[in-house]
Amino acid sequence: MSIRTLFLGLLLFSFSTSLFSSEKTKIILFAGQSNCRGKGDFSKLTANDKAILAKAQKQITLALFEHGKKTLKPLDCFKAAPGDTKKYGPEWFFGPEMFMGMELSKQWPNQKFLFIKHAVGGSSLHAAWNINWSADIAKGTPDERRPRLYYTWIDYVKEVLATLDMSKYEIVGMVWVQGESDNPGMKKGPKYEYSQNYKKNLTTLINQVRSDLKQPQLPFFCLQIGKLPMTEIAGEMENVYALRHDGKKGEGKYVYPMYPQSHYNYEGMKKIGTNFGELYIEKCRDLID
User: Fold this and answer.
1) Measured distance CA(63)–CA(78) in Å, rounded
2) In this model, does residue 6 exceed pLDDT 80?
3) Any bridge partners for residue 28, and if so which?
4) What are phi and psi of 4, to 5 degrees?
5) How far is Cα 113 from Cα 61, in angstroms, rounded to an integer?
6) How many Cβ atoms sit within 10 Å of the Cβ of residue 82?
7) Are 141 and 197 in contact (CB under 8 A)?
8) Is 152 in contact with 163 (CB distance < 8 Å)?
9) Domain residue limits, the chain
10) Per the confidence metrics, is the pTM higher than 0.90?
């Protein structure tokens, strides 16, 4: 989608917002790797899920940068790549923004939201998302072909924001779902180094986002991945929150099932999105009420 087309779409969205509510439209940002992109099976949504989504779609618009294409539409699923359909089965996927949006819609039925999302599968914070990215850092890693993702993401966010009358919009949070590419799984090897640097790299990323967007208190939400220090960072930085993760097998609110081939399935992604929504409502209610 061209920036002109995106601009016209956002103008219409802004106009409808002004008719719907006098409150500012709330913006939430999404970034990360494949589990932020999402592989939840959209075909498994229940009748109740679909009813809640239909209501949420009247309130939430998703600006999505996916595979080089920029789209703007009501909160919805996206087409799976043929290889993913062959591997996982579904033709249409959803990410954490879908059920998070549904939770926010239920909590604030008269509030408009804009979600802005860009995520790239298999990307590490060590290299691809590193604020201090360099060819030397990425050399010899899969991220050699994914350079400077943070800057691609922040440029897209700023591109969207530039089309808006910011007196009618407010950025109220960011969701980060990333870490599998930096999680060691063993005590030696390159990922061990990635994991050792993760705290510094994520802290730097959070501070950079807040600086670039001139939002020093921007709430930052992340999913706990393995033994990476998300929870530790959340305990040390203001307005940073780590979503609990009790694994992929068993029962419980914070257990997120996966396909046999990896990645969160319908149930796992639904629970992640729902839990993000509940965590946001718990921690940031004052930003919406």
Assistant:
1) 12
2) no
3) 115, 173
4) -65, -45
5) 6
6) 9
7) no
8) no
9) 3-288
10) yes
Q: Which residue has the tokens 């180094």?
A: 193
- Tell me the C-alpha distance between 259 and 209, whole Å: 32
Instruction: Give, in order, the Cα–Cα distances in Å from 50 to each of 58, 222, 257, 278.
Output: 13, 26, 21, 19
Phi and psi based region of residue 113 (left: phi greater than 0; alpha: psi -120 to 50; beta: remaining): beta
Q: Tell me the C-alpha distance between 289 and 141, whole Å.
A: 45
pLDDT digits (tens, 9 = 90+) for 155-178: 999 999 999 999 999 999 999 999
Contact 108, 284 (CB under 8 A): no
| Residue count of the chain | 289
Q: Which CATH architecture has domain 3-288?
A: 3-Layer(aba) Sandwich (3.40)
Q: What whole-number distance in Å separates Cα of residue 51 and Cα of residue 117?
A: 24
> Look-up: residue for tokens 């501070």?
207
**Band (136; pLDDT cuts 50, 70, 90):** confident
CA distance 158 to 213: 8
pLDDT tens readout for residues 16-36: 444 344 589 999 999 999 999
List the end-to-end C-alpha distance of the chain, in Å, as a whole number: 33
